[in-house]
Every structure is written in C-alpha cells, then in structure tokens.
Amino acid sequence: MAYACPYCKDGESRVLDSRSLDSGFTIRRRRECISCSRRFTTYERVEDIPLWVTKKGGRREIFCRDKLLTGIMKACEKRPIAHTKMSAIVDEIERKLRDQSEPEVSSMTIGQMVMDHLLGLDTVAYVRFASVYREFKDVGEILDCLEEIGAKER
Ligand SMILES: [Zn+2]
C-alpha cells in the first residue's frame, strides 16, 4: 500500500522505523518521502496491510494465515497438540512478521519459523513439516533431518 507524502503528494516513501501499538493491531511507521525527503508518520491497521510472501522462483502471494495454519495442522495430524497451540504458533509468527519493517518475507523464512516452533513441541510434526517444506526426495534426507534433531537435543 502506498502512503502518499502529505507535503508533495508523491506516493513513494521509505520506512525508517516501525513500532506496533495496541498489542500489534496498529503499526506506527516513520516514513521519509523519496521525492522531498520530508518525514511523516502513518498509523496502519494490521488487517489493512498486505504482507507479501515470496515463494521459490520469485512468485509472490499475499500472506494467508489460514494457509499457514492448514500446513501446521497437516503436520500435527493425530499428534497430541491442541488446536489452540497451533493457532498460537500462527499468531506469534504473524505478529513477528508484521513487526518487522519489511512488507515482504520469503516463504523459506516462514517455514523456518514454523520449524523452530515445532522442534520444541513434537518431533513427528517437525519431521512432517520439514519434509514438505524442504521437499525431501528420499528416506535418506528424512534420516539426515532426524539426525539434526538429535544433534540439537543433545
Ligand atoms: Zn514529499
């Protein structure tokens, strides 16, 4: 979303600083106009701000929390993990992503964040998620992944 400069009405500005307010639902950003270099502040409601996810190969899509939740639910299928725990993971990841000043994030980064959460939660869910996210080609790669977990737990 372009925030027009209130001075020269140019649409382009760069973000100098971002801060979340009211538990992350509003984001205050200090911006600097690219044309006239004057500074101004915007208050953005979280649901109004599209967060872009860059996929492998450079494709972009709007961040969708339902999609992320579905991915986690698949990985956690039949595991003793409460649904509220899964949506808490999504909440935390979304809040972290929205807290940063970049309106774009790579799907790799999101995948890694999910894996960090699952690692401490459930090994099976972790490996399932990792197998989708890393696109394991064979059993050998899954075993490598399990070895990595073992190394982290030691
Ligand atoms: Zn300006």
Explained architecture:
The structure is a single chain. With 154 residues, the chain is α+β, with helices and mostly antiparallel strands. The protein has two domains: 1-49, Single Sheet (N-terminal domain of TfIIb); 51-153. The protein has helices at residues 65-75, 83-99, 107-119, 123-133, 139-153, and strands spanning 13-21, 26-33, 39-45, 52-54, 60-62, 104-106. Strand 1 and strand 2 form a beta hairpin. Helix 1 (65-75) crosses helix 4. The termini are far apart. Residues 5, 7-8, 10, 33, 35-36, 38 line the site of zinc ion.
Tertiary shape: elongated
Strand fraction band?
Answer: 15-25%
> Gyration radius, to the nearest Å?
19 Å
Segments where pLDDT lies below 50 for 5+ residues? none
Bound molecules: zinc ion
**What is the terminal-to-terminal distance?**
46 Å
The H/E string reads EEEEEHHEHHH
Regarding quaternary structure, how should these chains be classified? single chain
Number of H/I helices: 5
Q: What's the number of extended β-strand segments? A: 6
Number of self-contained structural domains: 2
Main sheet: strands, sense, barrel: 3 strands, antiparallel
Give me the secondary-structure category: alpha+beta
What is the residue-averaged pLDDT?
Answer: 84
Helix amount, in percent? 40-55%
Strands ordered across the widest β-sheet:
1-2-3
